[in-house]
Amino acid sequence: MVSFIKELSFRWSDLDPNFHVRHSAYYDFGAQHRIEILEQLGLTLRVMQTQSFGPVLFREECIFRKELKLSDKIFIHTKTSKMKADASRWSIIHEFRKEDDTLCAVITVDGAWMDTKLRKLASPTPEIAIEALSIFPKSDDFIGL
């Protein structure tokens, strides 16, 4: 598998006054897709609550290349671009592409796993998180940290 892919459906509320997709909507779509993927891989919100851990982001950046409009047919492609062997630190990229494969935007997030009881980084990384991220598709330029 090269990446997780999902077709997006824009709503009127996703638009800005210039009638293109507002900048913060991209981040919302990326966050939603990451959670949907983790759910598919068995790392559900229930599992994270039960085991008292969850993802934490250190950086989130979007590079905008082409504007998106309400009627555009857009697909989000998600994959890992960096990861430590124990999955304790990772980077995930989301590419927003038109149906003709034109790259419109790229979100990059850098994160780790947080112990929700201790309120600090989880150590060791929960086994189910290691398993889920090991299945996650990797970018062509993937870097092992």
From TrEMBL:
Signal peptide location: none
One Pfam family linked to the record: 4HBT_2
InterPro entries, sorted: 4-hydroxybenzoyl-CoA_TE, HotDog_dom_sf
PANTHER family: 4-HYDROXYBENZOYL-COA THIOESTERASE FAMILY MEMBER, LONG-CHAIN ACYL-COA THIOESTERASE FADM
A GO term, aspect molecular function: fatty acyl-CoA hydrolase activity
Protein name as catalogued: Thioesterase
